[in-house]
Amino acid sequence: MTLEEKVLEVNKRLTKDNPHPKIALDFTNPMELLVATIMSAQTTDKLVNLLTPALFKKYPTVKDYAEANVEDIQTLISKVNFSGNKAKNIKASAQIIVDKHEGNVPDNMEDLDALPGVARKTANVVLGQAFHKAEGIVIDTHMIRMSNKLGFTTQKDPVKIEKDLMAIVPKELWIEFPARLILHGRHFCTARPHDCTGCPLGDLCPDK
User: Fold this and answer.
1) How far is 66 from 40, CA to CA, in rounded Å?
2) DSSP letters for the chain
3) Count of CB atoms situated within 10 Å of the CB of 140
4) 121 is an active site residue
5) Catalytic residue (choose from 26, 45, 79, 121)
6) What is the pLDDT of residues 129-165, one digit of tens each?
7) Cβ(130)–Cβ(118) under 8 Å?
8) 140, 149, 171, 195: which one is catalytic?
């Protein structure tokens, strides 16, 4: 079985459990997703979802974030790791979006990647989930672990892993495949010791 064939088989099996995989972060528009994703770095999605309702209510538009006091933003997100830097990045990103993009969150990799606090992972999340555009593959800690575990890559650097996966995953699966694999890594094949009984990937896993 080639790696390309293995990707398709893994996707086929995981589709049975997650036919329509959804991101764990709550949002209703691109700016909310951008803010939530910036907040989520080294912080659980569960905590982010607890904090964003009050944040989104206070700052309903990009302009509101651009005009906000950094200290006020930080107060609302103080429970996340590195809240000070994240608050600065959220405001700075909003200012750039207002000044350079007419208040609309960019829908391309180049402009998103240029925003403070945004790297390829965040940009891919926003592009895929808010705009349904596939310009790359989301690589988070679960994807790093699962991609290595399944033999799709031997790299540890997210950028190199993304490059390896983009070479073997059909572009039409660039959004849903990582979403399914992340959910599998988060809820079934965890980093902690766990029972592999009933794993849908079974014989495809080198650890078996």
Assistant:
1) 20
2) --HHHHHHHHHHHHHHH-SS---SS--SSHHHHHHHHHHHTTS-HHHHHHHHHHHHHH--SHHHHHHS-HHHHHHHTTTSTTHHHHHHHHHHHHHHHHHHSTT----SHHHHHTSTT--HHHHHHHHHHHS---SS----HHHHHHHHHTTS----SHHHHHHHHHHHS-GGGTTHHHHHHHHHHHHTS-SS----TT-TTGGG-TT-
3) 18
4) yes
5) 121
6) 999 999 999 999 999 999 999 999 999 999 999 999 9
7) no
8) 140
Task: Check if 45 is active-site.
Answer: no
| The model's pTM | 0.90
Domains of the chain: 3-21+137-204 (1.10.1670.10), 30-130 (1.10.340.30)
Mean pLDDT is lowest, of 67-81, 122-136, 176-190, for 176-190
Residues 6+ apart with CB under 8 A from 47: 79, 80
What is the rounded CA–CA span in Å between residue 86 and residue 89?
Answer: 5
Cα–Cα distance for residue pair 48/152, rounded to 1 Å: 30
Other beta carbons within 10 Å of 49: 16
Q: Measure Cα distances from 165 to 19, 29, 44, 98, 113 in Å.
A: 21, 28, 25, 34, 19
